[in-house]
Fold this protein.
Amino acid sequence: MKKYQNKINKIRSFALALIFIGFVVMYGAIFFRENPILVIIFMTLGLICMLGSVVVYGWIGLLSTRAVQVVCPGCGKYTKVLGRVDMCMYCNEPLTLDPALEGKEFDQTYNKKK
Ligand SMILES: [Zn+2]
């Protein structure tokens, strides 16, 4: 079975991974310090990853304002729902905003438009 995650959390971990990749790539430039062209390529790649992360973080901010805040019935905490179906940020309880989908098995495909 595929593991589902809250969408905002998922995007956030992706942005964090991009920062990490950017650091690793820039660090890699040290090993090629004899070759200035490679250093420039690695530094640029690392910078692109970090800039991408900044963009993704900005995108999360935008998405967060559009997400609906609900109280999770599973853990009682406030969580944000993006799209028709999403998971709780804290306990991964499936949540839906569509009464027609209530009680149905969680499926990510409900978010796709028909
Ligand atoms: Zn919960």
In short: The beta strands are 68-71, 78-81, 85-87, 94-96. The pocket of zinc ion is lined by residues 72, 74-75, 77, 88, 90-91, 93 (CB under 6 Å). Residues 1-66 form one domain.
